[in-house]
């Protein structure tokens, strides 16, 4: 074990810890320890860590900003890798001329996987480039947004996916091989990128549309105001727990046309305010589960199963989880 520790520390000096509490690295503030936690600062450190893990037979788990993550109370075995530092947190403006890319202000930007979405929005806005402001209020990093194909409505109610803005991706596999993929090769779908399994996102080439910086800022403010009115930010959470059903239905109600989203069905099933241990379904937004400060992962998972069972009984719909649950045991976790 001492030899393994030495090899890991040599691969990423000063950036490897053992028994790291995962509650420190998720927006839920929940989770058992990572057996080994590593924060490579650039691709060569990542490649070196992967080589050590392969030689030692360690499983490798990638964790981004932790904004859509629930870690089980038992923790995560093996090597948990979190990209960080300037080697992964950059935004480079580019312009294409034939097959040559010249660093220059243009409508394409290369974003490192560890770049926070908030930084991406702010810097694109400052450059007068529109295209990602719909992500205002969405936590996390570029790599996670690619992996989950992050999506939400803009200030006019139109739904957008992050994958729609991706031109191409630079990725690395677990053997350290790096390749560039066109966006079509990612298999972007609702809350997924099907064909990226086994690949680590290093950077994304994103397309933007020139626009007035003031107009972009106004749209961001409107989105923030809407989310503060409709979402529950009163306690730690991961945002929406469940994916919306793929077959969207609308029904007439006394208040007009009601969208049968996952949150609407969980609400109708009587789950708002329902508590198990330190986890509670938000009284404000039924697709949010909150940590009152003492929640365990088991509490959240029990609430998830209770909500799924009630919705299945009442609506005949089997909800799938949007939150990533680690370690992901297929026999326990659906979605």
Structural description of this entry:
- There is one protein chain.
- The chain is an alpha+beta fold and 335 residues long.
- The protein has three domains: 2-81, Uridine Diphospho-n-acetylenolpyruvylglucosamine Reductase, domain 2; 91-217, Uridine Diphospho-n-acetylenolpyruvylglucosamine Reductase, domain 3, CATH 3.30.465.10; 233-326, UDP-N-acetylenolpyruvoylglucosamine reductase, C-terminal domain (Uridine Diphospho-n-acetylenolpyruvylglucosamine Reductase, domain 1).
- It has helices at 2-11, 43-56, 117-126, 142-147, 213-230, 262-268, 297-315; strands spanning 16-21, 33-38, 60-62, 69-71, 76-81, 91-97, 100-103, 108-112, 129-130, 151-153, 159-161, 166-173, 178-182, 188-189, 192-193, 199-207, 209-210, 250-253, 256-259, 275-276, 279-281, 289-291, 324-326.
- A six-stranded antiparallel β-sheet has the order 7-6-8-16-12-13. It has a four-stranded mixed β-sheet with strand order 1-2-5-3, with helices on one face. A three-stranded antiparallel β-sheet has the order 20-21-22.
- Strand 18 (250-253) and strand 19 form a beta hairpin.
- Helix 1 (2-11) packs antiparallel against helix 2.
- The longest helix has 19 residues, at 297-315.
- It is globular.
- The relative contact order is 0.12.
């Amino acid at each position: 074990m001492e030899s393994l520790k030495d090899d890991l520390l040599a691969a990423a000096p000063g950036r490897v810890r053992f028994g790291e509490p995962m509650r420190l690295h998720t927006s839920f503030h929940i989770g058992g320890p990572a057996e080994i936690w590593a924060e490579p600062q650039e691709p060569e450190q990542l490649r070196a860590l992967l080589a050590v893990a392969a030689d030692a037979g360690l499983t490798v788990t990638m964790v981004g900003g932790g904004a859509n993550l629930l870690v089980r109370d038992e923790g995560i075995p093996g090597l948990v890798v979190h990209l960080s530092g300037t080697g992964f947190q950059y935004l480079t403006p580019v312009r294409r001329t034939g097959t040559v890319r010249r660093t220059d202000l243009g409508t394409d930007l290369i974003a490192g996987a560890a770049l926070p979405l908030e930084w991406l929005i702010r810097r694109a806005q400052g450059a007068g480039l529109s295209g990602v402001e719909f992500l205002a209020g969405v936590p996390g990093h570029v790599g996670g947004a690619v992996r989950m194909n992050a999506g939400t409505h803009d200030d006019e109610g139109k739904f957008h996916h992050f994958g729609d803005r991706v031109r191409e991706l630079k990725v690395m596999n677990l053997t350290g091989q790096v390749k560039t993929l066109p966006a079509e090769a990612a298999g972007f779908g609702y809350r997924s990128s099907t064909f990226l399994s086994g690949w680590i996102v290093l950077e994304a080439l994103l397309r933007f549309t020139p626009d007035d910086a003031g107009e972009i800022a106004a749209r961001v403010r409107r989105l923030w105001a809407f989310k503060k009115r409709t979402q529950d930010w009163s306690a730690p959470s991961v945002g929406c727990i469940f994916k919306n059903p793929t077959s969207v239905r609308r029904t007439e109600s006394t208040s007009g046309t009601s969208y049968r989203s996952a949150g609407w069905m969980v609400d109708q099933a009587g789950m708002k305010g329902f508590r198990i241990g330190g986890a509670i379904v938000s009284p404000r937004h039924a697709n949010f589960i909150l940590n009152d400060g003492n929640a365990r992962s088991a509490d959240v998972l029990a609430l998830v199963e209770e909500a799924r069972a009630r919705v299945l009984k009442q609506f005949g719909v089997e909800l799938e989880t949007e939150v990533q649950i680690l370690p992901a045991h297929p026999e326990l976790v659906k979605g």
